[in-house]
Specification:
Length: about 375
């Protein structure tokens, strides 16, 4: 019998035309001990309507790369194009108009404390000379979009971090941008608030068709919201692709290190029991099964797991669903000698299977 499999959708954004293109981007800053190269020959593109994540450790070059999109940082070499226009070649008026089409939100919100929520959101429109009535209606619509209609008259000091970021998002959207840049937008927030802000960003991406480019050092943010990810390491692009692919089969050391906190390692109590072989004693083998989401995107059928036999025990691990691909790892114990590694591989279609060690019967 063929097990029923849930359908899964491939990411449409991956096939969409490029909205932002980076070609051979290099950035050097002057430093006390000579120039610091923050970006080395970075080339990639961001599809229109995608949520694109840039991740890397501190100092990897994320901010420099993000800020090159609206020319807050000018590259030392190479070019950035938005909608086919090279942004480095724009004159002052061109830059003003480019920046109106690119909203930006920040880790520390950058709100003006002496202005109310409504005034913070409306300020860019006032600066642009928009009439007060039009400002009022636009601000009201945006506060409604971010769920803050009842806070229009409040001052930022009386808002929570999540509410302040919602104001930041509303302000970033005043000029109806086509691109939203998010600079560590959830790094100052607790996990629950982070989730609500990511939900809002996804909602805005869907409703307004915005292209979202975000930088973060947190792989959980990438997993939660992004379609595509680029990994930077000391200014070099070390990995790029669809999020499920990069998570399911990371290649670069930097990616593996960034993913480690999210992975189900071997719990310490179990690791303490493991021996390299049983030396003729009875016991269990502990296997690690890893599923990358490629072979069985819809999930791992219980019928496939049943091949491990009635003596098998699921010990630890789990599957995540990333953009329609189920992936993760399971630690299982099976009576030693009953199951050959190759047989398990063939039956389970696990992408990676490894014997971690053995637990002698007495210690189990
Ligand atoms: N204005 C500057 N002058 C000199 N060096 C700079 C400047 N801005 C950034 N750098 C250097 O460029 C490199 C990349 O910095 P960048 O801020 O882009 O990294 P990042 O990945 O965003 O780091 P973080 O996560 O800590 O913000 C670092 O070595 C940094 O010290």
């Amino acid at each position: 019998m063929i097990p029923y499999e849930l359908p899964f959708a491939e990411n449409a954004a991956a096939a969409a035309p490029a909205h932002i293109v980076f070609e051979g981007l290099r950035k050097q800053y002057p430093g006390l001990q000579g120039p610091v190269t923050a970006l080395h020959d970075v080339s990639f593109s961001v599809a229109r309507g995608a949520i694109f994540g840039i991740i890397g450790r501190s100092g990897a070059g994320k901010s420099t790369l993000l800020r090159s999109i609206n020319m807050l940082e000018r590259p030392s070499a190479g070019r950035v194009s938005v909608d086919g226009v090279e942004v480095g070649a724009l004159d002052e008026d061109g830059l003003v108009s480019l920046r109106r089409g690119i909203g930006m939100i920040f880790q520390h919100f950058n709100l003006l404390s002496a202005k109310t929520v409504a005034d913070n959101v409306g300020l860019p429109l006032r600066v642009a000379g928009v009439k007060p009535a039009a400002i009022r209606s636009r601000v009201a619509a945006l506060l409604d979009l971010v769920g803050l209609s009842d806070k229009a008259g409040e001052y930022p000091a009386r808002l929570s971090g999540g509410q302040k970021q919602r104001v930041g998002i509303a302000r970033a959207l005043v000029h109806e941008p086509k691109i939203l840049l998010c600079d560590e937008a959830t790094s100052a927030l607790d996990p629950e608030t982070t989730q609500s802000i990511l939900d809002l960003l996804r909602d805005i991406n869907g409703k307004l068709g915005l292209t979202v480019v975000l930088i973060t050092h947190d792989m959980a943010v990438i997993r939660e919201i992004c379609d595509q990810v680029l990994v930077l390491d000391r200014g070099h692009m070390v990995e790029q692709g669809e999020v499920w692919q990069v998570f399911g089969n990371p290649q670069a050391e930097a990616t593996k290190a960034l993913l480690r906190p999210l992975q189900h390692g071997t719990p310490a109590d179990l690791a303490a029991l493991l021996v390299p072989d049983l030396q003729g004693r009875e016991g269990h083998a502990v296997l690690s099964l890893r599923f990358s989401g490629r072979a069985r995107p819809a999930g791992v059928s219980l019928a496939a797991l049943a091949v491990l036999g009635p003596g098998a025990t699921l010990l630890h691990g789990g599957l995540d669903r990333i953009r329609g691909h189920a992936q993760g790892s399971l630690l299982v114990s099976v009576p030693a000698g009953v199951l050959q590694e190759e047989a398990a591989r063939a039956a389970l279609v696990a992408d990676h299977i490894k014997v971690l060690g053995y637990v002698p019967a007495v210690a189990r």
